[in-house]
Amino acid sequence: MDEDLKPHKKYFWALQEFPDDYVITTDDDLLYRNTMIGDLLAAHEAHPHAIAAVRTHLIMFNEDGSRTNYEDWIYEAPHYHPALVGVPSMRIFSTNGAGTLYPPHTMPPETFNAEEIKETCLTADDLWLKVMQVKAGIPVVAATDDQLLNYVPGTQGEEALCHQNTESGVNNIVLKSILEELQAKGVLADDFDKRVADPSLDALIH
Q1: Is the dihedral of CA 187, 96, 101, 73 positive or negative?
Q2: What's the pLDDT band for 206 if we cut at 50, 70, 90?
Q3: 135/158 Cα distance (integer angstroms)
Q4: InterPro entries annotated for this entry (predicted)?
């Protein structure tokens, strides 16, 4: 590994080196339930063409159809709305370090453009992966309603990436940067919000 891709390291080389295998991404600062792998495999077996994830957010939209800011999404949505579990959708957003299963040959080749990653989203792997999933038409499915994180004690100071990216609005800037950069280069169409929108999920959260 000749370069430090920060949180992208959890998937970048593994998905390329083992394209024919199942890859589960995790973080080194979390404690995991002993049912995590079984939950992910069960979700995958039920929905083999989706990416199964332990922790997911629900992307939200304003009344005019525009996407809300990241901090206004429903974090860990299936924890509060269990009906979302097992429902694959482009609107479901995976946080990859909490446990995410990637089936073989899932992510498009553009996922592994290190220069684009460093230019647009070096500290925000989840956003990059979501954009790539939308590009490839790959939905995400929540594997469980047990979504809350359990951190290794002493690992979550104020400098933690999750706090930097969400609490200061960095995720909004980064997502805008990814979309604009890839659209300008013709890698991505300009219909991200339209492709992510899934009004059918609204009935599951009310």
Answers
A1: negative
A2: confident
A3: 33
A4: Nucleotide-diphossugar_trans
Q: Which DSSP symbol is given to 7?
A: G
Tell me the residue length of the chain. Answer: 206
What is the C-alpha to C-alpha distance for residues 128 and 130, in angstroms, rounded to an integer? 5
Say what the pTM is. Answer: 0.94
Question: What is the Cα–Cα distance from 95 to 190, expressed in whole angstroms?
Answer: 23
In tens, the pLDDT along 35-77 reads 999 999 999 999 999 999 999 999 999 999 999 999 999 999 9
CA–CA dist 158, 176 (Å, integer): 24
Tokens of 110: 């553009």
Number of neighbours of residue 162 by Cβ within 10 angstroms: 17
- Name residue 39's amino acid: D
Take residue 190 and report the two structure tokens written for it.
Answer: 């300009």
For residues 198 and 89, the answer to whether their CB atoms sit within 8 Å is yes
Q: Are 159 and 27 in contact (CB under 8 A)?
A: no
Q: DSSP of 157-177, one letter per residue?
A: -TT-HHHHHHHTSHHHHHHHH
What residues contact 8, with CB distance under 8 A and at least 6 apart?
117, 122, 125, 128
C-alpha span between 7 and 69 (Å, rounded): 22
Question: Region 67-94: what's the mean pLDDT?
Answer: 98
